[in-house]
Design a protein that fits this description.
The complex is a heterodimer of chains A (230) and B (559). Chain A is α/β, with parallel strands linked by helices and 230 residues long. Chain A is built from seven helices and ten strands. Chain A has a single domain, classed as Rossmann fold, CATH 3.40.50. Chain A has a six-stranded mixed beta sheet with strand order 6-7-8-3-9-10, sandwiched between helices. A four-stranded antiparallel beta sheet of chain A has the order 2-1-4-5, with helices on one face. The radius of gyration of chain A is 17 Å and the shape is globular. Chain A starts with a strand and ends with a strand. With 559 residues, chain B is an alpha+beta fold. Chain B is 42% helix and 18% strand. In chain B, a hairpin with a 2-residue loop joins strand 10 and strand 11. In chain B, helix 2 runs antiparallel to helix 16, helix 12 runs parallel beside helix 16 and helix 13 runs antiparallel to helix 17. The chains are: A alpha/beta (230), B alpha+beta (559). Chains A and B meet through helix 2 and helix 3 of A and helix 1, helix 13 and helix 17 of B.
Chain lengths: 230, 559
């Protein structure tokens, strides 16, 4: 295992029970991802992209196999350690933005930073700086319902980046946006992450978006097809 | 602090949900407070009005009812009812001279017969008896007015009597003498004393002017027997009938109940110092003092210090009392000896109040007294006395007893469930948000703390509104609530009614209690805590359940 190796996934599976039947969402995946990579997970619906992303983001545990992150087997970590990992090491961007509807743009960013224990003034300053970076400093006090889809996703990106995570995981970030806005959002995400040296793993259907990645990993029926270097 | 700002944003941002939860909690709390307050109010009313004996230091009352057979406790016998109540018959002639003003009070034991006071010693000597006290409770009829005067008018006279009698005619010699006298006087002109052949001599002819047979001088010409006519006349017998109108009278009657109390015993009696609402109790010496029930005093406009004149004896009102219901209630109380004297019932009582040494002995003592006194004696326990009371208060108290607890529990459960369900439903709609928070790195503890904070805030606000609402409703019940009444009838002989007097001489005492819903701090706190705990438990459980989901599952649930 080299120092650049961020993820090492070994024979990871994930299955769900649906009534009496067992659905294998992910079957025996082996995958490595290095620091600073921008990886696109592509494939049709139900191919297991989101399931794999959730294993990578410590949102879920594999049914079997192992997911090593920075050399640590995530299976061995408790819920609190995983929460801490999600807080400091990962940043998520969702297809449906998942902003807290009762909090304004600034507070949504603060919500990610608050558990780090940052003083109140720093919390606000840092959140405002991030909103400024995504071009929304003048919309800081707007509620999600008062923002467009693209603006909401930019708030989500500012939120994901707020704790300086090592990995940004984006699940179809352009899925609810028109193609121009989608491209803008992905450009913003990749450029900011590259500046900071973050690793980006994004799930997408869109070949144009996938083309912006260093590497596209094609999936089908819960398995990886040939890894492709960008 | 961010978490507080988040909490505020959640409550304000989801205004409808917050208000719904708050109103639900408030109604639950108000319901618990109001129902419990009402139950408390009824309980309190019940304790004062429906638990009559305990307030006068008594466990049992002993009275004597008329029996068809003689013997036993008292003098017995159905005739005793009539004998005991004979003074009810008003002898108008004894009230004074016709036309004079009179005031009189009649005292009747009704069908609660009297018995010698010394019988009480028999009860006092029984084992388990701690104290006894005699009482005399009489129905009094107060009459005042003018003694009626009866005048009959009979009209007589104005009758005309016709008398016919044959006068013996003058003899021939007399006729000649009369004739000669008349001629001498020149009466009758040339008239000759008439004579008819074979008939009686008579007077004939007319007179001349200036004199006649009727003149006094001419009358002297007649023999003495003809000058004056005397006869004894017997008029026919007849009966005069005159209808006499009933005498006009302004006699007014009013009735009340009077009780005689042994002033030496103040811990047990028809009333005790604990029933005083104003003034003081009898002095132990038992002078001419009276206690008056507050209701009667109000009705008759009597005050402390007012005088009561009972058949010439003046009593001073020294205290106002609120006597307990339950049969031995009176409007006016005076020392026993005074009442015995007034009512001509010396040495007699008609109720014995008994206190047992311990509450567990009451049933045994009751049986002992019944056995010792024989038939006729009625020994009533507090429970039986309470059972004889009826009215809306009793209905409400029974309702409260039967349903109050159930209603309070239902209200409490309802408040708890409302709090829990609203909170759970609210959390159910936030699973995705909770999943997002967890994806952002919020720990389980942090998520639960945040949700609990919201529940606490909603619970406190809902609880406060509910308390305010409950207090308002309770106050409204106190101000506008209905009055509940309770009444108790005694003196009616029931199955042993003799000569139908029972109904007429029955005494009914009644009291009315305003329905209130008194609140206590603990009650308010209980209602408040209930909503809070309900919300917190449900919130905690719901939040824990949602927070324990894997973030992936939580995010997936709503998508």
């Amino acid at each position: 295992m080299t120092d650049d190796l961020l993820y090492d996934i070994r024979n990871a599976t994930r299955s769900f029970r649906r009534g009496d039947a067992t659905v294998n969402a992910l079957g025996a995946v082996d995958l490595t991802i290095e620091h600073g990579e921008i990886v696109a997970l592509v494939g049709p619906s139900g191919s297991g992209k989101t399931t794999l992303l959730q294993l990578l983001g410590a949102l879920d545990r594999p049914t079997s196999g192992q997911v090593f992150f920075e050399g640590r087997d995530l299976n061995t970590l408790g819920d609190n350690d995983l929460a801490d990992l999600r807080l400091r090491a990962f940043g998520f961007v969702f297809q449906t933005f998942n902003l807290i509807p009762t909090l304004n743009a600034l507070q949504n960013v603060e919500a990610k930073l608050a558990p780090t224990g940052l003083p109140e003034s720093d919390l606000r300053a840092r959140s405002l700086a991030l909103l400024d970076e995504v071009g929304l400093s003048d919309r800081a006090d707007h509620l999600p319902s008062q923002l467009s889809g693209g603006e909401q996703q930019r708030v989500a990106i500012a939120r994901a980046l707020s704790t300086e995570p090592r990995v940004v995981l984006a699940d179809e970030p352009t899925g609810n946006l028109d193609s121009r806005t989608g491209t803008e959002v992905v450009d913003l995400l990749t450029s900011l992450s590259e500046e900071r040296g973050h690793t980006v793993i994004l799930v997408t259907h869109d070949p144009e978006i996938a083309a912006k990645a260093h590497r596209s990993i094609r999936m089908q029926d819960g398995r990886l097809l040939e890894p492709t270097l960008a | 602090m961010f978490y507080l700002r988040y909490l505020r944003s959640e409550l304000v941002g989801r205004r409808t949900r917050t208000i719904l939860t708050l109103v639900g909690l408030a109604l639950g709390v108000a319901l618990v407070i109001t129902i419990s307050g009402l139950a408390r109010g009824l309980d309190r009313a019940q304790k004062t009005a429906l638990n009559p004996l305990s307030t006068i230091g008594t466990d049992l009352t002993v009275t004597l009812s008329p029996q068809q057979d003689t013997g036993g406790f008292g003098r017995g016998g159905g005739g005793q009812v009539v004998q005991a109540n004979q003074s009810a018959v008003t002898d108008l002639s004894k009230l004074g001279k016709p036309g004079t003003q009179f005031v009189h009070d009649f005292f009747l034991p009704g069908t609660q017969l009297t018995f010698p006071q010394k019988q009480t010693a028999k009860i006092a000597s029984l084992p388990g008896v701690a104290a006894v006290s005699n009482g005399l409770v009489l129905s009094a009829v107060h009459q005042e007015g003018v003694v009626p005067k009866i005048v009959a008018k009979i009209k007589t006279g104005g009758q005309q009597l016709d008398i016919r009698r044959q006068i013996k005619p003058p003899t021939a010699a007399e006729a000649a003498a009369i004739q000669a006298c008349f001629q001498k006087l020149g009466v009758g002109g040339g008239a000759q004393p008439g004579g008819q052949p074979g008939g009686q001599p008579g007077f004939g002819g007319g007179g001349r002017t200036g004199g006649g047979f009727d003149s006094p001088a001419a009358r002297k010409c007649l023999p003495a027997r003809m000058r004056e006519f005397r006869a004894r006349i017997t008029t026919p017998e007849q009966t005069l009938k005159q209808v006499v109108s009933p005498p006009q009278t302004n006699i007014k009657s009013s009735s009340y109940t009077i009780g005689g109390i042994d002033p030496a015993q103040q811990s047990i009696g028809l009333v005790t110092p604990s029933q005083l609402s104003r003034g003081r109790f009898f002095s132990k010496a038992g002078g001419r003092e009276a206690l008056v029930s507050s209701a009667y005093a109000k009705r008759k406009s009597l005050k402390l210090g007012s005088k009561l004149d009972l058949n010439g004896t003046t009593f001073k009102i020294v205290g106002l009392v609120r006597p307990p219901l339950g049969g031995q209630t009176a409007d006016v109380y005076i020392p026993l000896a005074q009442l015995q004297k007034l009512a001509s019932q010396s040495g007699l009582a008609n109720v014995v109040l008994v206190r047992a040494t311990s509450s567990s002995d009451v049933a045994t003592v009751q049986k002992e007294i019944e056995q010792a006194l024989g038939s006729g004696a009625q020994v009533a326990s507090a429970k039986q006395v309470t059972a004889s009371i009826n009215g809306s208060l009793v209905d409400a108290a029974n309702l409260s007893h039967d349903l109050g607890l159930v209603l309070a529990i239902i209200a409490a459960v309802a408040a708890f469930l409302v709090a829990a369900l609203l909170t759970l439903s609210s959390i159910g709609k936030r699973v995705r948000e909770i999943g997002t928070l967890k994806a952002m790195g919020w720990s389980q503890r942090l998520v639960v703390r945040q949700v609990l904070g919201e529940c606490l805030a909603t619970g406190v606000a809902g609880g406060l509104v509910g308390v305010a609402l409950g207090v308002l409703v309770a106050a409204a019940i106190g101000a506008f609530g209905p009055s509940l009444s309770a009444s108790s009838t005694t003196g009616a002989a029931g199955a042993n009614d003799v000569l139908g007097l029972g109904q007429a001489l029955a005494r009914t005492a009644s009291t009315s209690v305003s329905l209130t819903a008194p609140l206590s701090l603990s009650l308010i706190f209980f209602g408040f805590a209930l909503a809070l705990v309900g919300g917190l438990i449900a919130g905690g459980a719901g939040a824990l359940r949602a927070a324990r989901l894997r973030p992936a599952d939580a995010l997936r649930q709503m998508e």
